[in-house]
Description:
Elements: H1 11-14, E1 19-24, H2 32-42, E2 50-55, H3 84-91, E3 95-101, H4 109-127, E4 133-140, H5 149-162, E5 169-173, H6 178-205, H7 217-233, H8 237-252, H9 261-281, H10 285-299, H11 309-332, H12 343-364, H13 403-418, H14 422-439, H15 443-459, H16 463-479, H17 483-500, H18 503-513, H19 522-536, H20 552-561, E6 568-571, E7 578-584, E8 588-590, E9 595-603, E10 609-620, E11 623-630, E12 637-638, E13 643-650, E14 661-671, E15 679-684, E16 722-726, E17 732-737, E18 742-743, E19 748-756, E20 762-771, H21 779-783, E21 785-788, E22 799-807, E23 812-821, E24 827-837, E25 845-855, E26 857-858, E27 861-868, E28 877-879, E29 884-892, E30 898-907, E31 911-913, E32 926-927, E33 932-941, E34 949-950, E35 952-960, E36 967-972, E37 975-979, E38 983-988, E39 992-994, E40 999-1007, E41 1013-1019, E42 1025-1028, E43 1032-1037, E44 1042-1051, E45 1055-1058, E46 1062-1066, H22 1069-1082, E47 1086-1090, H23 1097-1103
Parallel strand pairs: 1-2, 1-3, 3-4, 4-5, 6-15, 8-16, 18-26, 28-37, 39-47
Antiparallel strand pairs: 7-9, 9-13, 10-11, 10-12, 10-14, 14-15, 14-16, 17-19, 19-23, 20-22, 20-24, 21-23, 24-25, 27-29, 29-33, 30-32, 30-35, 31-33, 34-37, 35-36, 38-40, 40-44, 41-43, 41-46, 42-44, 45-47
Amino acid sequence: MAVSDALDFPPELCSKPSALIGLCGLDIQSNPLHKNIWDVFRTSHERFSVNFKLFSTSHCFPPVKPKRSTYDWYIPKGLLKRNWMKKHLLEIPSVIALMFDLDWDDANVEQLKLDCVSQLQSLRASLGSHATKIVVILLQKTAPLPDDTKASERAKSLCATCDIEPHQLYLLPHGDHLQGYISRLESVLCDLAQSYYHEEIKLIKQHKDQLNKTNQQYLFVRHQFKLGFLSELKQDNHNAKKYYDKAYTFIKETRLSESNIVEVKLIAGFITYKLCYLMFKLNEPRDAIRNFKLHIEFYKDKKGSKELYFEHLNWLSKQYSAFGDIFNEAVKDGLTAVQTQHPGFYFELAAQNAIERKKYCLELCKDVTTYPQSDPLMGLNSLEFYGQRPWRPGKLSAEPINTALELEGITALKYRENLVNHSTIIIHLLGKAICQFKTYKCPRMRLQLVVQMADEYFSSKEYGQALTLFSHILWDYKEEKWWLLQSKLLTRALSCACVAANVQDYIHFSLEALGPLAKFDTERKLKIFNNLMAVLNLKCPEPEPEVPSQIIPEAQKSWEASRKSNPITIEMSSKSCIEVKARFLKPIFTVDEDITVEIYVRSHCPDFIEFSNMSVFINKSNGVAEYSVSSDKLNLKFEPERVKNSLYNFKCDSAADIGKMIQINSVLLTLGFFKEREAKLKFNIANGTTESCAEKTTDEFQYFRWLTLSDPTFDKIENLTNAKIVASESKVKVQVKHNSPALLSEWYPIEFHITNDEDVSVSDSVLEVKYHQSGPEDLTIEQSTQLCLDVKNCVPLSFVNVTLGEIPQKETKVIVVYLRGHRIEERNLITKLSYNLMKDGIAPTKSFVETLVKVPIIQPFEVSAEILSMKFEKIEKCFSRNPFILNVTIRILSPWPINIHESSIKPCNYVKFCDQDVTSHLAGAVLNQGEGGTDMFPLTIDESSDKPLALGIYTVKWSRTSSKEITSSSVTMPTVRCDPTVLGVEMNLPAHGWVRKPMELEYNLFNYSNNLLQLDLLMESSDAFMFAGQKQVLIRMLPGSNKKLKYNLYPLFPGLVALPRLVFRSMADEFAEQLNTMIDRNLLSHVYIMPQEKIGTEELTSTE
């Protein structure tokens, strides 16, 4: 055990106090039932704050301390014994349960009773005079019935034999519902445990009146601490807090001296830990924080021996760290912390005290090199009381001190303190603090702690870890423009990189240190520059000022071993020693001209610097292209604080870039002339990282910004990082001819006349025609647009490509593209002609010609339909099996004449034609704009419906008079309501009659209903006719039957004469209205009667 651990908080103090309940009699190794029971008990901490532990019946428990009858002459030798908390947490159970397999119906029940008694006696002997409560639990297969008198008698007999009370015997059936039985049993055991701790508290309270504060002040503290601890075991947190509060009050009253100050502070820290823990549990965080601050305030000046001041700092560090831990646990349990008060502050204070401890250790212990031969620290792990010295255990403050032994003890403590790894402790505490400040969004405080951690890694010679941290935090301070802090960190980072022989980081930090904003004098910058050049020339750099002299030889060996390394790429920032700007000379370039990039470089190095290569990276449509120039072709040597510009010319080598933007991605400067030590400095132009510090200044500080006096124009150079590639002016013309507007659904021809007016032939010419989508709302229009090249062998596409090949000079090619639109919207077609043009032996240049074609689409004609009765009267509904006429009208909207080739209707399945031969009335008609035509179709519907029924689809095949391509257009006919028909009536009558010549009239009646139909038929009289037949008759018609009525009519005068009216009266009133409606709709009401023939004169004379 290290000396530093003597001031740690013991695990039994920091663990959650749980009542200890013992179980014995379970053989978990060989008995599966016992193993299952133990597993259920072991997981009970989720429901109860208890600790179940297995004991054997012969377990050796700690001996019982003899009871004192009086405390008159007793003088305590310490505050708190080291084994007391551990004893009550892990060794002395509050309740112990003897588990025994015993069924009342077992054949060997008597023998089993004797075995149970034997084990119980052995257990009592092991416990001795401990006040632990004993219970017996019988493991049985089934639960006894409530009225089982036999089981009750045997239970009483067992209690008498075992000498236990009936309430100490319990049954545990291990059949079904084992979990529930054990849960109830656990509740009983917990109640017994609380009763045990309550009795222990009463015993301690009985000693209160026997104590005096003159010689027994320690006992006041000890007893109150024990009362608080036992109350915690009893789960009585409120009383526990009260007892701990009294204990702290008593310990503050204790007289302090050199011999007891460590012990008193240690126990005061224990009590404060318990108090703060309970206050957080009781949701009193403000009281916990205030109590801890008062505790620190009271004891921070109780330093003890000056020679052991590091010990006091260690104690303070432990106090802050422990409080931070319980504060953090409270936050995890739901407590809300804020930025100004959270656990991170206490971990940070713990780290600061640990740093001070290290400092005083180096100061006070530097002369101690040997450990005393008498070993004054022997027995440190076996001390009886917390916080005492092993060379004077149990010595009271009134006793004289052995000066020689005391000096040896102090020397031993100093020697041991030299062996402590302080850096590990400090780094651990700083890490916990950093996590908290990161959680509560305190970035600057976190950065400060990271710097301290990096310094600690550096001092502990872990240079790799320190270098990693410096690499991260340097850029944070740079972003916030803390130039002085950044310069200090750069010095330490350079030292780390130098010792670790990290080539990349050393070069990177050197370049940053040479920047204009680094706070180094000229001499220091010149030394850094010379070291940088030495590293690039495969040499060792001069040691940095902060590098310890004893590790310089080892560092030089590391640099020698790192001669062979891979090329290094460094992302340069805007405030480094090299500043770069790049721009295009103009925003637009044609595809056949040189693209020029101008690059400006300014060096802030204290001496001339030369690069071996310069490259510029351009973002293109097919990726990133690199264009480089070596130092052989271009002078890449730069003078301090002077600006040098360079021009790069390159060709556009990809036709895919035409019409698109190109962008300057980055500029790469290669530093060093050895492949083993090349440093590639990358300046990201596209991301804007090359802006000078003046450009980063906000508008309100423009008049106070930093400028380089040697060349202020560099800051005014604007980066033009984007340029557009456009095609060169083309002499190939594309002329579009078409006769708009286009008609809906027709294949509309568009002619493209391509004429080559270039001085030479063009090759590889391709014409692409596609729909031009101007926005996402045009997507549905694009889907309703089709293109093709051949209507007869057509595969409709959304675009077409026509390969034209070579077009000779002054020649014209004609391409016809057919367009069909299925929606009435204007179509925008984009035509793109691409070709290769070769002039004067130069490589072929890809050229493009784009044309936008707008094609409006209109509706060719308008179709309307209506339902007519057989008398050509408009009706709103029809009847099943009753004929009606579908009247379809076409009205021409097209400005071009329309030729109707055919018209037809495809009826639905339930719709039938009344006639077998149905022909189109409009076939062959040519209609102009504003004209119209009509089709009529006699139809009948077989079945009625409650919902409107669709009649079918009307199709017209048409074309323009100037075109032979026939287009088919279909229109859905309107719906009609169809009611069921009860009675069907047909009339048979000649087309006309003659005056005074009889004519026959016949009515056919059909009963379409499923019921017997009774009709009262009446033929009304007429002045124009005499008739013979039944004038009034009662008709009964069976379902599905028919009936014929015949009348002979004798016309009396000519003309359009009204027929005698047939009136039906149904015996059922609901049919009467329908019958008369059908008669009025379907039966003729008039007939033409021709006059009598006149007899000639000659015939009349001969007759006379």
